[in-house]
Amino acid sequence: MSFRDLRNFTEMMRALGYPRHISMENFRTPNFGLVSEVLLWLVKRYEPQTDIPSDIETEQDRVFFIKAIAQFMATKAHIKLNTKKLYQADGYAVKELLKITSILYNAMKTKGMEGSNVEEDISKFKFDLGSKIADLKAARQLASEITAKGASLYDLLGKEIELRELRTEAIARPLEINETEKVMRIAIKEILAQVQKTKDLLNNVASDEANLEAKIEKRKLELERNQKRLQTLQNVRPAFMDEYEKIEEELQKQYDVYLEKFRNLAYLEQQLEDHHRMEQEKFEEAENTLHLMQNKLKEEEKRLFKSGSNDDSDIDIQEDDESDSELEERQLSKPRTAMEVLMQGRPSKHIVGTMQGGDSDEVEDSEDSEIDVEDDEEDDDLEDESIALSPAKPNRRVRKPEPLDESDNDF
């Protein structure tokens, strides 16, 4: 008995809701009435439907009561109680009572914590379930093995009736001494042969040991000889070692040269590829510009051709009464084409003649001479390609330009 046990017992009984106040002085002397009352209350608290007799007047009743309590707690709660200490009903009985009160107190405490930590318990349960998958597999395998063993055991028990008869017949049958002696002699001979074989092996152990030692010594001598040979070979320098080192140095130099040339070759190939790529880009750019210029020239030729045809039509429909200023403004406003430049470059031809009917030969000769002079002057002007003309006022009646041979080919 200790003070701590008494204190814990009183506190647990108070927490469990025992109606009577329990003092630590109650167990200084034997108090079977209090012990029996506490035991009965704890049993009712553990299982309310329990029916245990509460008579404690005589000694036999008290013994029967203690035995009933101990048997109930052993079968239901798996708690082993010391009946002698409980029957003493003093401080030693408190230790036995603590076994029951501690279980009830822990159950009450865990029940109170379940209400506040329901989610945590669920998560813990899930975690524990996931962590014990291997245990579940092992349990499933054991269950299958148990089922198989049970089936085989059931089959064997089904044959028990026949086997029982055979067993009883074998037991009831009298033993034949001659056969028994024969079997025993055979077994003894086999055992003696095994013993002799074992003795022979033991005798041969010494010779085997000697042979093994001789082999070990031989191997040791070979090992020492090989080690000495290895040392001599390591100390002696081969005759071709100097030549080997020279060749190795030359090989290293050649390898360095090879690396340098390989690096330069790779660099030059890269530069060549860059140069070819730049040339290709320039060529493609030149081709593109050439195509653009050709397209522009074709469009310009088409535009000039269209403007030239428009100018010819305008010249045909000009009226005689246009003023000189209007003609100058129209000429300045329109773009000059090659046809206009040629027409402006030609001077106006003056027609010389008389009003008389019938032309004389002299007049014809003079007219021919004047026309020849004017044609020569026009040819000189075309050869010199002098397109700049003096701003002379044209005649009021505009003469239709003469058609030029192969004028379309000029464009």
Automatic annotation (TrEMBL):
Compositional bias (Acidic residues): 311-327, 359-386
Region annotated Disordered, chain positions: 304-411
GO cellular component labels: actin cytoskeleton; centrosome; ciliary base; ciliary tip; intraciliary transport particle A; intraciliary transport particle B; nucleoplasm
Keyword Coiled coil listed: yes
Coiled-coil segments on the chain, per record: 207-303
Pfam families per record: Cluap1
Keywords: Cell projection, Cilium, Cilium biogenesis/degradation, Coiled coil
Keyword Coiled coil: yes
Domain of life: Eukaryota
Any GO BP annotation: axoneme assembly
Subcellular location: Cell projection, Cilium
PANTHER family, per database record: CLUSTERIN ASSOCIATED PROTEIN 1, CLUSTERIN-ASSOCIATED PROTEIN 1
Family: Belongs to the CLUAP1 family.
Protein name per UniProt: Clusterin associated protein 1
Upper taxonomic lineage: Eukaryota, Metazoa, Chordata, Craniata, Vertebrata
